[in-house]
Amino acid sequence: xxxxxxxxxxxxxxxxxxxxxxxxxxxxxxxxxxxxxxxxxxxxxxxxxxxxxxxxxxxxxxxxxxxxxxxxxxxxxxxxxxxxxxxxxxxxxxxxxxxxxxxxxxxxxxxxxxxxxxxxxxxxxxxxxxxxxxxxxxxxxxxxxxxxxxxxxxxxxxxxxxxxxxxxxxxxxxxxxxxxxxxxxx
Length: 186
Ligand SMILES: Cc1cc2nc3c(=O)[nH]c(=O)nc-3n(C[C@H](O)[C@H](O)[C@H](O)COP(=O)(O)O)c2cc1C
Known about the structure:
Elements: E1 15-16, E2 18-24, E3 27-33, E4 36-40, E5 45-51, H1 55-63, E6 65-70, H2 76-84, E7 98-100, E8 107-109, E9 114-125, E10 129-141, E11 146-147, E12 150-151, H3 153-156, E13 160-162, E14 165-167
Antiparallel strand pairs: 1-13, 2-3, 2-6, 4-5, 5-10, 6-9, 7-8, 9-10, 11-12, 13-14
């Protein structure tokens, strides 16, 4: 074994690249977020860590709703832009075409192949960041990206975030909940 310690830091191997949608003062705003994951299966919940200074935070606190939009790699420029500028300084409402679903106040970006519509369940104050946990009330998906009732990873072409760069999803390494059956005790 040859390990070195790197010190405590908010490390995760790879992350999704998402756009958090929230209405702030009645106008759609989208911010890029990578610190996000699934939080619960039943009821279905997702979560995202937002710095307290984000303009988006105002909108989620105001409406108690938000969306997580999954951009395709072809929209990497627009996606990165939403992470470079704040809605407090620049109106970001026209970067994506907004529509509304069940909740009426969580803007959904039409250009993103998958949109996760959330009702705020709870926000947890962790320090610099608030962890927003949202109950998923609906998943909207482009018909062309759905296979067997679920968004297809290849067709969706989501953007992976790692090492300050955007990546395409790579080659499969094995079938989950299956390949482990080949394990043989040595
Ligand atoms: C790739 C990438 C990932 C980011 N992930 C997060 C994140 O998970 N949480 C966060 O608070 N800010 C994150 N940011 C920074 C915000 O997107 C950025 O501060 C943005 O301008 C905030 O927009 P707003 O003020 O309109 O809400 C990320 C930025 C980029 C480029």
